[in-house]
Specification:
Radius of gyration: 20 Å
CATH topology of the largest domain: Killer Toxin P4, Chain A
Strand order of the largest sheet: 1-4-5-3-2
Number of domains: 2
Strand content: 15-25%
Structural class: alpha+beta
Bound molecules: 2-acetamido-2-deoxy-beta-D-glucopyranose
CATH architecture of the largest domain: 2-Layer Sandwich
Shape: globular
Length: about 190
């Protein structure tokens, strides 16, 4: 409310607000995971390597030729970003920049961290990933869930959709990305 009143006061402000909204609406934060196993101290080589590493992910994320995926390593730090298949390089870049800026604040001093947005994923680790396959949880039958459904029924539907998408992805006309989407209706149990 306050912000929108603020934004109607002058044309220049409106333009600034438009700009702000255009960038702010690009990346929607979803979740993060700090492993908390090993920590680095500030003003160490690890910290400066991590900063260099994150900057190179951010700058590379604006390159359309990468198709929204880039993995790199600097010394012991290995990591990558992965953007959703239907977002362009501009949106990918905005998301990776937000992820890189947030991850060191959300997981301070951590040598292995994960962050998820609607549009991208950014992960890094010192040497090896211990939790390479983790994904943020989807609440089911929990408070806050919008659909009250049976877990087994849901998992069966999910499995059906994923299996049907596997074949479609192989034949996808989206070039290198092999990006497909599928949807199924979930009814209340
Ligand atoms: C890591 O530490 C943070 C802050 O203390 C905590 O919120 C988070 O749950 C911890 N993560 C794990 C995986 O234990
Ligand atoms: C990163 O991993 C290497 C190799 O396992 C280890 O020697 C180094 O101490 C680790 N760095 C940090 C900051 O934990
Ligand atoms: C973690 O990093 C902050 C600054 O980024 C520093 O002040 C703090 O001493 C570090 N903590 C440890 C345990 O190294
Ligand atoms: C991409 O990252 C690499 C490091 O892995 C770096 O050398 C290169 O300059 C980056 N490219 C761009 C366009 O930022
Ligand atoms: C990228 O996608 C966003 C959101 O759909 C759109 O606003 C923007 O114009 C697109 N940019 C380019 C260069 O296509
Ligand atoms: C950073 O993370 C917090 C969650 O702790 C989230 O609310 C916020 O939107 C994120 N900011 C950016 C710029 O991604």
């Amino acid at each position: 409310m306050l912000a929108s009143n603020f934004c109607t006061t002058s044309l220049i402000l409106q333009l600034l607000c438009l700009l702000f909204h255009a960038t702010a609406s690009a990346a929607i934060y979803s979740a993060h995971f700090c492993t908390n196993q090993t920590f680095y101290a500030s003003d160490t080589k690890f910290q400066s390597n991590l900063n260099t590493f994150l900057s190179s992910l951010v700058s590379n994320s604006s390159l359309p030729s990468l198709n929204g995926f880039f993995r790199t390593s600097i010394d012991d730090i290995d990591g990558r970003f992965f953007c959703r298949g239907d977002v362009n390089a501009t949106v990918c870049h905005g998301c990776v920049a937000a992820a890189a800026a947030n991850i060191t604040h959300l997981c301070p001093n951590d040598t292995e961290s994960y962050i998820w947005y609607d549009e991208c994923i950014l992960i890094y680790s010192n040497s090896t990933f211990d939790n390479d396959d983790i994904v943020p949880g989807i609440p089911l039958n929990d408070e806050g869930s919008t659909v009250n459904t049976n877990h087994d029924h849901f998992n069966q539907l999910l499995s059906n959709v994923l299996n049907s998408l596997k074949g479609k992805a192989l034949e996808s006309s989206m070039g290198e990305k092999k990006f497909v989407v599928g949807a199924v209706s979930v009814t209340s149990a």
